[in-house]
Amino acid sequence: xxxxxxxxxxxxxxxxxxxxxxxxxxxxxxxxxxxxxxxxxxxxxxxxxxxxxxxxxxxxxxxxxxxxxxxxxxxxxxxxxxxxxxxxxxxxxxxxxxxxxxxxxxxxxxxxxxxxxxxxxxxxxxxxxxxxxxxxxxxxxxxxxxxxxxxxxxxxxxxxxxxxxxxxxxxxxxxxxxxxxxxxxxxxxxxxxxxxxxxxxxxxxxxxxxxxxxxxxxxxxx
Length: 222
Description:
This protein is of the alpha/beta class. It contains nine helices and seven strands, in the order βαβαβαβααβαββααα.
């Protein structure tokens, strides 16, 4: 049987599209599998729990109890895919903990497959964080997310050499539309009959990219 998937979406920077990616991925997994467990580790609103309250619970990594409570929920092979929307304020503390407890080895022992989705930016903090992750996370488990709404042009060379996931940019008026707390990507696909609309094609393209990511996980495990 395949291992349980764990997606950790992260960045040391605010406002890079991390929660948007977590929303998209969570809705894709919910559509595909019928269920998903999402965890919101953020300080500011709106955050993932505001958009997807039925499948999301809040978590923190401020103290040992919070860290262990989160790990107990996500490092378990129960067949239920997990998504962590890791706030920028918790980035350093989370990956310090991950290194100290040997998260990748412990996950493999428990048949959990973690994927680290690092949302890129061009600043020094992002460069240092990405370099740290490259030293800590195996290449197959680390995916750099190129959010074209944030990265206007090419990724920094140091970030472009590994596994990539591209998040196409949306026009500003559509971004305002999807930022409503009541908006659902899957709901839009089901309700919008015109499949040629830009938002319909954008959502389908991202869902297909997630499907390719899942297939790569299956091949990795085989």
